[in-house]
Amino acid sequence: MNSLNRAVTGKRIAVEPPHPEPTMSGWYTTSGPELPLLPQTGDVNCDCLVIGGGWMGLHAARRYAELNPDSSVILVDADRIGNNASGRCMGFVIDLAHNPRKQDFVEDIKGNKEELFVNLEGIAYIRSAVEEHGVDCDWDPQGKYHSAATAHGVDDLRRFSEALDALGQRYSWVDTAEIQAMTGSKHYIKALHHPGTILLQPAKYLKNATKSLPANVTVHENTPIVGVQFGIPRHVCETPAGAIRASKVIICASDYLTRFGFFKDRAIPLYTFASMTRQLIDNELSQVGNKPAYGLIPANSFGTTVRRTVDNRLILRNVYSYATDFKTTQRDVTRARVQQQIAFDRRWPGLSSIGFESSWGGLLTLAQNGGMVFGELDRNVYGAAFCNGTGVARGAAFGKAVAELAAGRSSPVIDILKTRAKPSRPYPKAVTALGVRVVTAVRFRQAGAEV
Asked: In the chain, N or C terminus with fewer CB closer than 10 Å?
């Protein structure tokens, strides 16, 4: 147990539930029928309670149940699975994280190779759900395109290519004519294609993977944990309509984990925002290129990420904001939508007047030092949190590994994650909030036409 963790055994802790989102995710509203809603009621017992139905929690529940088929597992989520923070991402299942502006990206060969190893483990576990359990999620292993719209964006791509060379990674350059033909947009001037990334519909995967969980898993949505008393032999976790008594608890709920008495005030909460068009019709599809689906990562990390989906929609994501008290507002979403409309106008000026069908935000939890939570937090209490971005493959790997740890297993991924730095304490909230706002505003302006 790390010295940064606070022993909380025997003490009741009131847990503030997550704030409701002001808008529905477009991924969720287009992902098909909702899961049968079964909020938890009354008092129940289980061998293992998993808190959080995102990338970490869903795969933790699945893995613990696989390893312990005679154990009872309960998975709870405070929202609807697929409409939570995990279901609001852009659906890139990334094998190697990208940050071409980071000065030590090239030098940290060992760290990047370990990151790749962990992410590949996560991708393999997600793939097994698709291939072995028939989870429908618009699975597309085409890789990702790092796209540049400016000369400084091309410079960023060259720095990223140097990092890939140092790691022995395959990639290919995409010239102006090819990227413009692929996207139908004159906005882009160069791109770098990096294979290995999977594109999927995140809400569809989370919902359908939930339906394919082992039979010894019970799922309760709209079930926040509002109070907890960790103890021996059972932990008592209160819900709005009852209590769950569990021999083991695995907390996979991002910033929510800090409300259980662990790593308090260590999280830096950010929101990112996205907007989705309606389905494009035939004469509109001719304007968005000759490739039926793609994922574009901006050369500058503060630029605009783009997805063209298999059901013929465009999704644009940009704008980061500090999330005071881990929440966003309708006003924040509306302001971000304005910036996404500008990005739409730049890329497809003949099409952008159609606007967007839906806009939403998604919570991203960072640590000041890039650290993460992983391991046993208290006796028979385990946790995984703080993906620090690119959380789909990483989250699946973290969740699988923490379940294996809780089940008494070992693995190379567990060994790697045990060596990771824990989240450090950031500057005071007011200072951090101001710093994030200033830095994001400056970086957003510097990104220029990459936005």
From this structure: N
**Is the residue at 278 inside a domain?**
yes
Answer whether 30's CB lies under 8 Å from 311's CB. Answer: yes
- What is the model's pLDDT at position 207? 98
Looking at residue 8, its pLDDT comes to 58
Asked if the bond preceding 292 is cis, omega within 30° of 0, the reply is no
pLDDT given at position 104: 46
CA 421, 427, 430: angle at the middle one, nearest 5? 140
In a domain, 6, yes or no: no
Report residue 216 as tokens: 């010894």
Q: What is the CATH number of the domain that holds 179?
A: 3.50.50.60
Distance of CA 341 to the CA centre of its chain: 24
Residues of the chain predicted below pLDDT 50: 1-7, 100-107
Q: Which residue has the tokens 């063209």?
A: 308
User: Tens of pLDDT along 20-61?
Assistant: 999 999 999 999 999 999 989 999 999 999 999 999 999 999
Question: The domain containing residue 127 runs over which residues?
Answer: 12-450
Q: What is the pLDDT of residue 98?
A: 65
Phi, psi of 383 (to 5 degrees): -155, 155
From the list 158, 142, 145, 140, the residue with the least C-alpha distance to 185 is 145
Sheet holding 305-308, edge to edge: 172-174, 190-194, 144-148, 294-298, 305-308, 314-322, 267-276, 358-367
- Look up residue 400 and give its DSSP letter: H
